[in-house]
């Protein structure tokens, strides 16, 4: 029985590592496309150096933090699946999903559609992990005859979970390819997409706060590792915010360029800069 448990645990951890590596590659691939689009004649992708460094730092920190949390807190107990699924779901998949969404801001046409699918797959993986992580902790509380949603972490956790469900739903509505957005008046489209981007980022931030609140809990507290995880998540949050704001500056530049070449197609007279971009994409 014990041997079987150890084998299952090893297989699960191997699976997590494989998925971690492939997801990191996936979000990087969508980044590469963005570069190819901007450098059509150039086979070698070139990111602006600061964006390249930020992206690399985010890939490394998401992998290190999520896998160390998942591995080092794992002891085959039912509870330990909660930090495992939550850290893989939020720190690895959701962070990489957010990075991939930042990368396709500048894309257009079929490459953009492909990049959006990549983003959607990453967020779907996050959602599956989060659902499993929640089911585990909920069941664990029932087994231990403990009251639900009492700690600050669990209250923030519920808010994060609600946002985690809302955000992909808004993504589904925003994705033109699925046709739902066309049921809404055209003038709402840019606002719906804007709302999805904002809700997505707030959800990710809320998740980082929720995890920070869990780290000092006696069940998971480790003398040396806890401060390192706390610092790591703070740094990751800072890096991703920087990448997002850097990219917004770039979006503005790209937008100015795109407008000059697409003005003929767009009825730009009554649209704001943001609405024009959204319509163009
Ligand atoms: C954003 C990710 C996370 C979310 C949304 C989340 C959500 C929740 C929720 C809703 C509960 C309460 C369940 C209930 O009362 O029935 C809970 C409990 C708990 N979680 Fe998390 N969790 C997350 C990440 C983590 C991580 C990474 C750890 C460990 C490092 C962790 C450790 C705990 C602990 C120790 C409890 C029991 C706390 C208590 O007594 O209320 N959680 N979590």
TrEMBL record:
<keyword id="KW-0249">Electron transport</keyword>
<feature type="compositionally biased region" description="Polar residues">
    <location>
        <begin position="267"/>
        <end position="281"/>
    </location>
</feature>
<keyword id="KW-0813">Transport</keyword>
<feature type="transmembrane region" description="Helical">
    <location>
        <begin position="80"/>
        <end position="104"/>
    </location>
</feature>
<keyword id="KW-0472">Membrane</keyword>
<feature type="domain" description="Cytochrome b561">
    <location>
        <begin position="48"/>
        <end position="252"/>
    </location>
</feature>
<protein>
    <recommendedName>
        <fullName>Cytochrome b561 domain-containing protein</fullName>
    </recommendedName>
</protein>
<feature type="transmembrane region" description="Helical">
    <location>
        <begin position="116"/>
        <end position="138"/>
    </location>
</feature>
<dbReference type="GO" id="GO:0016020">
    <property type="term" value="C:membrane"/>
</dbReference>
<dbReference type="Pfam" id="PF03188">
    <property type="entry name" value="Cytochrom_B561"/>
</dbReference>
<feature type="region of interest" description="Disordered">
    <location>
        <begin position="253"/>
        <end position="281"/>
    </location>
</feature>
<keyword id="KW-0479">Metal-binding</keyword>
<keyword id="KW-0408">Iron</keyword>
<dbReference type="InterPro" id="IPR045150">
    <property type="entry name" value="CYB561D1/2"/>
</dbReference>
<dbReference type="InterPro" id="IPR006593">
    <property type="entry name" value="Cyt_b561/ferric_Rdtase_TM"/>
</dbReference>
<feature type="compositionally biased region" description="Basic and acidic residues">
    <location>
        <begin position="253"/>
        <end position="265"/>
    </location>
</feature>
<feature type="transmembrane region" description="Helical">
    <location>
        <begin position="158"/>
        <end position="178"/>
    </location>
</feature>
<keyword id="KW-1133">Transmembrane helix</keyword>
<feature type="transmembrane region" description="Helical">
    <location>
        <begin position="54"/>
        <end position="74"/>
    </location>
</feature>
<feature type="transmembrane region" description="Helical">
    <location>
        <begin position="227"/>
        <end position="243"/>
    </location>
</feature>
<keyword id="KW-0812">Transmembrane</keyword>
<dbReference type="GO" id="GO:0046872">
    <property type="term" value="F:metal ion binding"/>
</dbReference>
<feature type="transmembrane region" description="Helical">
    <location>
        <begin position="199"/>
        <end position="215"/>
    </location>
</feature>
<dbReference type="GO" id="GO:0140575">
    <property type="term" value="F:transmembrane monodehydroascorbate reductase activity"/>
</dbReference>
<keyword id="KW-0349">Heme</keyword>
